[in-house]
Design a protein that fits this description.
The structure holds 2 protein chains of 2 kinds. Chain A is of the alpha/beta class. Helix content of chain A is about 40%, strand content about 20%. Chain A is built from 19 helices and 23 strands. In chain A, helix 18 (about 560-565) links the parallel strand 22 (about 550-555) and strand 23. In chain A, helix 4 packs across helix 6 and helix 7 (about 215-225) runs parallel beside helix 12. Chain A starts with 7 loop residues before the first strand and ends in a 6-residue tail after the last helix. Chain B is α/β, with parallel strands linked by helices. Chain B has one domain: Rossmann fold. Chain B is about 30% helix and about 20% strand. Chain B contains 13 helices and 14 strands. A 7-stranded mixed β-sheet of chain B has the order 2-1-3-4-8-7-14, sandwiched between helices. In chain B, strands 10-12-11 form a 3-stranded antiparallel β-sheet. A two-stranded antiparallel sheet of chain B has the order 5-6. In chain B, helix 1 crosses helix 7 (about 195-205) and helix 3 (about 90-100) packs parallel to helix 5 (about 120-130). Chain B starts with about 35 loop residues before the first helix and ends with a helix. The chains are: A alpha/beta, B alpha/beta. At the A-B interface, helix 1, strand 9, helix 7, strand 11 and helix 9 of A face strand 2, helix 3, helix 5, helix 11 and helix 12 of B. Strand 17 of chain A pairs parallel with strand 2 (about 80-85) of chain B.
Chain lengths: ~600, ~350
C-alpha cells in the first residue's frame, strides 16, 4: 500500500460524485455534519451545476486535524455515484486511493486503474430489494452509500442516528427508511471490506465553541441583528439564499405573536434596478434597508449606486460574487467584482467595501455595513462569494453584544430642527466630512429636495463649476475618511519573513495553509488579509516594509493588486500577482506552486 | 406653480385650510418650464388639491424621475420632502420609501418618457404591488428636455415638429394599467383644473396606487399642426362624460348622493367619490366594462377623461405584506434585535 495512505487519522479528503436532484445533498450533508460533531475540523465544498436535475454535481469533504480546511486537490477516496462522470472521477483519485462505486452493474474495464482500490457496493440492487417506490429507491441509494462510508471511515454511528432522529422527528416513516438504508450500506461494507480504511476518522476535540454555517445564512442573521427592516431583492444565484434566510429569520423573530403583524417588509423586486431603488427609497426615509445580489445584479445597480453616492443616501448591498463576465458560471466562485464595486457607476464614484473571509465575518460585517452606510451616508457593499455564501464552514459561534447601539450617523431630530434657524443638507460637515441629514416627515424645517443632479453645498441645484466641485471634493474626502472605520487588515508575521503575501476574502484559509506549507520548507513570509476599502495606512505600511509582496486573488485581471496600485502610493514593482480564477474554491497547493516558482527555497 | 417670482407675503384675505395654511403655503419654487407648459397647470392643481385636503406639508413626499415633468415637484409644496431620482426609477424609490414609512403622502410625478419607455417596467410593477401613492403622468407625447423626439405615447400618424410622422403604435397608460390590475385609473387634461383637482383628491384618498394620466401639451415641441397632443387637438378629441365630486370624510353629505349622484364609491379612509355623471351602463367599479367603453370611444377618435375606474377592495403593498401599522422607521431597535440569548440558542442548532 502507498505510504501516504497508511494509517492517516483525521487528515484526508474525499469526493462524492453525484447526479443533481437525486437527494445526494442530504446524504453528503449528513456525513459532513457527523464529522463535525466528532470534533474534527472539516470543510465541505459543493461543486454544483447551474441546473435543477440530471447534471453532474460533486461534493468534496476535507478533514484536517490541524484545522486546514481549504479545498484539497487530491482525493484519497472517490464515491463515484454518477455513471456519466465515471471516467473523469476515476482519474482524480490519488494513486493508491480508493473508489467506492455501485456494483449493481459491472465497471467497464477502461475504468479500472491498477493503482486504485475498488470498493463495490451493490447499492441500487439492495435498495431495489428493500424499497418499493422508484423515487424512494433513488433517494435511499444515496443514504445507503453514506452508511457504507460510516463503516469505511469510522464515522460515529450514534451521531448519524442522532442526526436522523433530529431531522425526521416529525416524520417517523422517513426516519425509518433513512435508518434502514444507512444500515444496508453499513452492514454490506462491514461484511465485505476491511473497515475502516487506512485513512479514517477518530473523535477529537477540535470543534469546541464552533458551529457549521454558510455565509448567506450568517449574512441574513447580521441584517436581522443590525435592525434592517426593509429588504428588496431579485432572485439570483448565489445570493438568493441570503434573502431566503432573512425571510425565515424575520418570520421567526420579527412577527408580532398576537397580531401577526410584521416588523419588516421584504419586497421581491422586478429586477435589480428596482431592488436597489427600493433600498435607496427606504434608506432615504430612515429605515435600515439592504439588497443582496451577485455580479450581474451589481452591473444593473450601478446606475442608482451613483445616485445614492452623490445624493448621500445610505444603502447596503451584499454581493455574493460568482464567476463573470456576463452570465459567466453562476454556480462557481470568484472575486471578480472588486473593481466594479469599488467604483460602481458613471462619473467619479467610490464606495466603501467590506470583504469577509468566512461566515462569522459575514455576520459581523453585515452589521458593520449598516453602521458605516449610515455614518457616511453612502452605499456600502459587502463582497462575499459563492464559496463563503453557499458552503457550510466551521467557524467560531458568533456572539452578540447586547449593548450594541446602531450608529445612525448624523440625523437631525424634530427638536434639533426646531432650534435651527435654517437647515442645509450638505453643510456644515463634521470631521469625517459628513453633513447632517433629515428624515422625511419629521419636521417642516428639515424638508429638503434631494437630487442626483448637480447641487451645491446648501443642497440647491447648481451648474456652477466651483459649487459642483466643492461638493464632489468633499465626497472624496469623506470616502478617504472612512478608511479608519472599515475593518483593519489582519496581519500575521513570521520570524525571518523575506516577503509579504496579501490576499482577501475567501482565499484566507488556503493562503494561510500555503504559508504554513512554505514555512515547512523554510520559506517564511508575512501575511496580510485586506478586509475593507478604502485602504488605511497599515495596508500601505505592510507593503512598504517588504521588498515585494504576492497578491493572491480569484480573478484574471489582478483586481485587488490594481486597486492597491491605484489607491496607495506603493511602487508597481512591489506587487506580484497570483491569480486563480477557474471557479472552484482556492486550494493551498495552487498558491504554494506559484510562489515556489518565483522564490527559491533557502 | 408661479412662473414669475411672487412675494411670499400672505394676503390676509386668502382662504385658510384646517391647518390654518393658505394656498401659498403649498406652492414651491419658481417654475423653469417654458411659458404655457401644461405641466405648470398640473402643478397648480396639485397645489390646490393638497391645500384643500389640509395635509401637513412636511408629511408629503414628492418624488420624480427625469424629464420636464420630473422637474415639477420643485414647483409645489416647498415644505414637503422631495426626491428627484433617476430616469424611470421613481416607482422603485417610492415603493421603498413607502415600505419604510407608510404614513407619508406620496406624490409621484412622471412623464410619458419616464414612465412609458425607460420606466415602463417599474411603473407596471408599482401598479401590481399597489403601492399607496398618487402617480401623475404628465403626458405630452414628446421628449422635451432632449428636444422633440417621439415618446412611447405618440399616436400613430402624429408628426414631429419637423413633419415626420410617427409609425409605431402608442402605449396608452390607462388601458395598460387597467389590464394589469390597477386599482385607480384616471385621465385628465392639464387645462381642466375643475376636473383634475377632485381627481387628485380622490387619488390621495385611494387605498393603493392611483394612476392619473394627464394630457399636458408641450408648447415648444408638440403644439404644432399634425400633433395629436397639441392644445387644439387635445381640446377637440377630449370628452368629459364622467363627472366626479370628492367628498372628504368629515363632510356628512352622503344623503345627497342618492338623489344627485349616479353612483358613489366609499374610499378606504371614509371619503366618498360621487359620480354625478357617467355614460349609460358605465360602472366605474367594473374593470371589464370600463376597458370596453374606453376601447369603443378610442376607436371613435375620442379621448375619454375623468376618474375612469376605482377599486377600493384591493389591499395595498403593506396590507399584502402584513406590515405592522406603525411605520417601520418608528419601530424601536429594541423590537428589531432578537438579542444575544436568541442568537446563542439559534446557533446551537448549527451543530
Amino acid at each position: 500500500m502507498h505510504q501516504l495512505l497508511r494509517d492517516r487519522v483525521n487528515d484526508f479528503a474525499f469526493k462524492l460524485a453525484n447526479v443533481n436532484g437525486t437527494g445526494s445533498a442530504s446524504a453528503n450533508g449528513l456525513i459532513m455534519q457527523a464529522i463535525f460533531r466528532m470534533g474534527i475540523p472539516v470543510s465541505g465544498k459543493n461543486l454544483f451545476p447551474s441546473n435543477i436535475q440530471g447534471l453532474p454535481t460533486w461534493y468534496e469533504i476535507r478533514v484536517n486535524r490541524e484545522g486546514h480546511t481549504a479545498r484539497a486537490l487530491e482525493y484519497d477516496l472517490m464515491v463515484a455515484m454518477n455513471a456519466q462522470t465515471y471516467a473523469r472521477d476515476v482519474k482524480e483519485v490519488r494513486s493508491g486511493g480508493f473508489l467506492l462505486y455501485d456494483s449493481s452493474w459491472p465497471l467497464d474495464s477502461h475504468l479500472i486503474r491498477d493503482d486504485v482500490n475498488y470498493v463495490g457496493v451493490p447499492l441500487a440492487r439492495m435498495c431495489g430489494e428493500h424499497f418499493q417506490d422508484s423515487r424512494e429507491r433513488i433517494l435511499m441509494k444515496n443514504i445507503a452509500y453514506a452508511g457504507s462510508l460510516v463503516a469505511l471511515l469510522d464515522i460515529d454511528m450514534h451521531l448519524i442516528e442522532q442526526l436522523l432522529e433530529g431531522k425526521f422527528s416529525a416524520k417517523p416513516s422517513l426516519r425509518e427508511s433513512n435508518h434502514k438504508s444507512v444500515m444496508i450500506g453499513y452492514e454490506y461494507a462491514k461484511k465485505h471490506f476491511d473497515c475502516p480504511l487506512p485513512f479514517h476518522l477518530a473523535k477529537m476535540d477540535g470543534n469546541q465553541g464552533k458551529i457549521l454555517i454558510d455565509g448567506n445564512t450568517a449574512t441574513a442573521l447580521g441584517a436581522v441583528y443590525a435592525g434592517a427592516t426593509v429588504a428588496a431583492w431579485y432572485p439570483i444565484t448565489p445570493a438568493t439564499s441570503v434573502m431566503d434566510a432573512f425571510t425565515r429569520f424575520c418570520a421567526k423573530y420579527r412577527r408580532d405573536k398576537e397580531t401577526g403583524a410584521n416588523n419588516y417588509c421584504i419586497i421581491q423586486a422586478e429586477d435589480e434596478l428596482a431592488a436597489i431603488g427600493m433600498v435607496i427609497g427606504a434608506s432615504w426615509n430612515g429605515a435600515r434597508a439592504f439588497t443582496s445580489t451577485s455580479g450581474p445584479g451589481v452591473s444593473l445597480m450601478n446606475e442608482l449606486l451613483g445616485l445614492a453616492y452623490y445624493a448621500e443616501i445610505p444603502a447596503v448591498l451584499v454581493d455574493v460574487q460568482r464567476v463573470g463576465p456576463s452570465t459567466g458560471m453562476p454556480t462557481r466562485t470568484q472575486q471578480g467584482d472588486l473593481m466594479e464595486c469599488a467604483y460602481a457607476s458613471h462619473g467619479d464614484t467610490k464606495h466603501i467595501l467590506l470583504i469577509p473571509a468566512d461566515p462569522a465575518e459575514c455576520f459581523d460585517f453585515a452589521v458593520k455595513s449598516f453602521d458605516l452606510a449610515e455614518k457616511f451616508q453612502t452605499p456600502v457593499i459587502m463582497l462575499s462569494d459563492l464559496d463563503i455564501g453557499m458552503n457550510d464552514w466551521v467557524v467560531d459561534k458568533m456572539a452578540w453584544d447586547d449593548s450594541y447601539v446602531p450608529d445612525r450617523g448624523r440625523v437631525l431630530t424634530a427638536e434639533q430642527l426646531e432650534q435651527m434657524p435654517k437647515y442645509f443638507r450638505y453643510s456644515p460637515e463634521d470631521e469625517n466630512h459628513v453633513a447632517a441629514r433629515t428624515l422625511p416627515g419629521v419636521h417642516q424645517k428639515g424638508a429638503f429636495f434631494i437630487r442626483g443632479s448637480g447641487h451645491n453645498k446648501l443642497g440647491g441645484y447648481t451648474e456652477i463649476p466651483d459649487e459642483y466641485q466643492e461638493v464632489i471634493d468633499r465626497l472624496a474626502r469623506k470616502h478617504k475618511a472612512s478608511a479608519k472605520f472599515v475593518p483593519a487588515p489582519v496581519i500575521e508575521r513570521r520570524e525571518g519573513a523575506g516577503f509579504g503575501v496579501i490576499t482577501t476574502g475567501g482565499c484566507d484559509r488556503a493562503v494561510r495553509e500555503a504559508m504554513q506549507l512554505l514555512a515547512n520548507r523554510g520559506i517564511n513570509a508575512n501575511y496580510m488579509r485586506i478586509r475593507g476599502f478604502p485602504f488605511d495606512d497599515p495596508v500601505v505600511d505592510f507593503i512598504e516594509e517588504h521588498p515585494f509582496c504576492f497578491v493572491v486573488e480569484q480573478n484574471r485581471d489582478a483586481q485587488l493588486k490594481s486597486l492597491l496600485l491605484l489607491e496607495t502610493p506603493v511602487a508597481k514593482n512591489k506587487l506580484r500577482s497570483i491569480c486563480v480564477y477557474g471557479g472552484f474554491p482556492l486550494s493551498a497547493n495552487s498558491v504554494v506552486d506559484r510562489i515556489l516558482s518565483q522564490v527559491e527555497a533557502k | 406653480m408661479p412662473s414669475i417670482a411672487k412675494p411670499v407675503a400672505k394676503h390676509p384675505s386668502l382662504q385658510r385650510n384646517k391647518l390654518d395654511l393658505t394656498i401659498r403655503d403649498y406652492e414651491g419654487a419658481m417654475s423653469t418650464l417654458c411659458a404655457g407648459c401644461g405641466h405648470d397647470s398640473i402643478t397648480a392643481a396639485i397645489v390646490k388639491a393638497l391645500w384643500k385636503m389640509s395635509i401637513e406639508p412636511h408629511r408629503i413626499a414628492k418624488l420624480s424621475g427625469i424629464g420636464c415633468s420630473s422637474k415639477t415637484p420643485t414647483y409645489f409644496v416647498n415644505g414637503a420632502h422631495g426626491f428627484n431620482s433617476a430616469h424611470g426609477r421613481m416607482p422603485s424609490i417610492a415603493a421603498g420609501a413607502s415600505a419604510a414609512n407608510r404614513d407619508l403622502v406620496y406624490i409621484g410625478v412622471s412623464g410619458d418618457g419616464d414612465s412609458l419607455s425607460i420606466g415602463l417596467g417599474q411603473l407596471c410593477h408599482a401598479i401590481r404591488r399597489n403601492v399607496k401613492m398618487v402617480y401623475v403622468i404628465e403626458n405630452n407625447g414628446v421628449y422635451g428636455l432632449t428636444k422633440g423626439q417621439f415618446s412611447a405615447s405618440t399616436d400613430i400618424g402624429s408628426t414631429s415638429k419637423k413633419g415626420d410622422p410617427n409609425r409605431m403604435p402608442p402605449i396608452d397608460p390607462v388601458t395598460m394599467a387597467l389590464s394589469i390590475g390597477a386599482t385607480f385609473v384616471a385621465r385628465s387634461f392639464s387645462g381642466d383644473k375643475d376636473q383634475l383637482v377632485p381627481v387628485l383628491e380622490a387619488a390621495v384618498a385611494h387605498r393603493g396606487f392611483a394612476l392619473i394620466d394627464v394630457i399636458s401639451p408641450c408648447v415648444t415641441f408638440n403644439d404644432h399642426k399634425g400633433s395629436t397632443k397639441s392644445y387644439l387637438a387635445s381640446r377637440q378629441s377630449m370628452v368629459r362624460p364622467i363627472e366626479t365630486d370628492f367628498v372628504p370624510p368629515a363632510e356628512e353629505i352622503l344623503a345627497q348622493i342618492g338623489t344627485n349622484g349616479v353612483t358613489s364609491v366609499t374610499m378606504h379612509d371614509g371619503s366618498v367619490l360621487r359620480f354625478t355623471a357617467v355614460p349609460k351602463d358605465y360602472d366605474p367599479t367594473d374593470r371589464g366594462k370600463v376597458s370596453a367603453y374606453l376601447r369603443e370611444r378610442a376607436a371613435a377618435g375620442e379621448v375619454v377623461t375623468g376618474l375612469l375606474y376605482v377599486d377600493e377592495s384591493q389591499p395595498d403593498m403593506h396590507e399584502m405584506s402584513q406590515t405592522v401599522a406603525t411605520p417601520l422607521v418608528n419601530v424601536p431597535y429594541s423590537k428589531l434585535c432578537p438579542g444575544s440569548g436568541a442568537l446563542s440558542k439559534l446557533l446551537d442548532q448549527f451543530r
